[in-house]
Amino acid sequence: xxxxxxxxxxxxxxxxxxxxxxxxxxxxxxxxxxxxxxxxxxxxxxxxxxxxxxxxxxxxxxxx
Length: 64
Hints:
Pfam families: SET (PF00856). The protein has 64 residues and is an all-beta fold. Helices cover 0% and strands 34% of the residues. The strands form three sheets. It has a two-stranded antiparallel sheet with strand order 1-2. Strands 3-6 form a two-stranded parallel sheet. The two termini are 17 Å apart.
């Protein structure tokens, strides 16, 4: 298994969190995610896209 922690911010920037990353690296992919991404000043924010129940897994669409 090879893990990939790349996130394309825009046509010019890609963030590589393979060596170091925050807790967001544990959020899994879903085609029906409960979180969405927002880009602000070369930072990625992952925010709730809907109400999330306690204990529910956090997911977002990796767009692969």
